[in-house]
UniProtKB/TrEMBL annotation:
It comes from Streptomyces katrae. This is Phosphoribosylformylglycinamidine cyclo-ligase. The lineage of its organism: Bacteria, Bacillati, Actinomycetota, Actinomycetes, Kitasatosporales. Keywords: ATP-binding, Cytoplasm, Ligase, Nucleotide-binding, Purine biosynthesis. Its main location: cytoplasm. Belongs to the AIR synthase family. It catalyses: 2-formamido-N(1)-(5-O-phospho-beta-D-ribosyl)acetamidine + ATP = 5-amino-1-(5-phospho-beta-D-ribosyl)imidazole + ADP + phosphate + H(+).
Length: 356
């Protein structure tokens, strides 16, 4: 006699559709908080809709787009069981790339991949993304949550996002606007932001044997709390600065470090020099360097060293720019200048020693 067997199903394979539906319901209230008047429809459609007729006020609108993730910082969130801040990092990585060219952030979509759908956890991630979108001034118009049992562990997850912005053609910022004598203004980072965590985790955990719940006197909190500090979102600050002062270019300091990212917006015939003595990197950068015996050059190639965004402005705009940023609560200072290329082979270099 043949024994009856239960037929295969999606649930038996590890995918819980009902849990996914519950996650969507939980996240709706947060997504709603990001809506702009140009957004049509609600969450749950096959595509997010944005009314492009709003761009009619532009003479020659350029759409700017970017996509990114958060990297291995997500593992810190997983280990700590804190999921409502990692979305800030995602929005910052995407929208602060878009604002660099002078574009206004319009809308964003996200992709969350999990080993197992825990509705409250997914909703917490989306809450963070939605809060980040509010800080960036953009709408969260849609997304996708994918469950990948067998490929990811039940508690594993990753996030990615894509965004779109718009800028008037004749207001496009970048290398062609930069002139000899321009000032380089640095804007303070909130910490490590979302780059270099593979190095950070290797140094602090594998080599130094530290733990996330370890209290660090220099931080005034645990190591985990410091490492999970959300990336600062500069989008609205940069847009406000562009309206207030003449700005020639921005540089978002992410993977690759300060000099390499600044060099991306410097024209071939010019050179940017940044004076380290104009600021003191936060304690976390010193900890990573000392714990791993990491050479300064390697640190600077990997981490932001306390600067999350840079603006290149004409000298006559410096005072207005610094005042505008201070009024918005952004710590900023003149960190360098633009020179003729001369014998320099790099687009940007760091000089001097960090202030103690």
């Amino acid at each position: 006699m043949t024994e009856k067997t239960t037929g295969a199903s999606y649930a038996a394979a590890g995918v819980d559709i009902e849990a996914g539906d519950r996650a969507v319901e939980l996240m709706k209230e947060w997504v709603k908080k990001t809506q702009r008047p140009e957004v049509l429809g609600g969450l749950g459609g096959f595509a997010g809709l944005f009314d492009a007729s709003a761009l009619k006020r532009y003479e020659r609108p350029l759409l700017a787009s970017a996509t990114d993730g958060v990297g291995t910082k997500v593992d810190i969130a997983r280990q700590m069981g804190v999921y409502d801040t990692i979305g800030h990092d995602l929005v910052a990585m995407v929208m602060d790339d878009i604002v660099v060219c002078g574009a206004e952030p319009l809308f964003m979509t996200d992709y969350i991949c999990v080993g197992k759908v825990h509705p409250e956890r997914v909703a917490a991630i989306v809450k963070g993304i939605a809060e980040g979108c509010v800080l960036a001034g953009c709408a969260l118009v849609g997304g996708e949550t994918a469950e990948h049992p067998g490929l990811l562990g039940p508690d594993d997850f990753d996030v990615a996002g894509a965004g779109t912005g718009v800028v008037e053609y004749d207001r496009l910022l970048g290398a062609d606007r930069i002139r000899t004598g321009d000032a380089v203004i640095a804007m303070a980072s909130s910490g490590l932001h979302s780059n270099g965590y593979s190095l950070v985790r290797h140094v602090l955990f594998d080599r130094a044997g530290m733990s996330l719940d370890q209290h660090v006197e220099e931080f005034g909190r645990t190591l985990g709390e410091e490492l999970l500090e959300p990336t600062k979102i500069y989008s609205l600050d940069c847009m406000a600065l562009t309206r207030t002062a003449e700005v020639h270019a921005y540089s978002h300091i992410t993977g690759g470090g300060l000099a390499a990212n600044l060099a991306r917006v410097i024209p071939d015939h010019l050179h940017a020099t940044v004076d380290r003595s104009t600021w003191t990197p936060g304690a976390v950068f010193d900890l990573v360097g000392k714990a791993g015996n990491v050479e300064r050059l390697e640190l600077e190639k990997t981490l932001n060293m306390g600067v999350g965004m840079m603006a290149v402005v004409p000298q006559e705009s410096v005072d207005v720019a610094l005042t505008a940023l201070a009024d918005r609560g952004v710590e900023a200072w003149v960190a360098g200048e633009i020179l003729d290329r001369g014998d320099h082979t790099e687009g940007a270099t760091l000089t001097g020693d960090y202030a103690v």
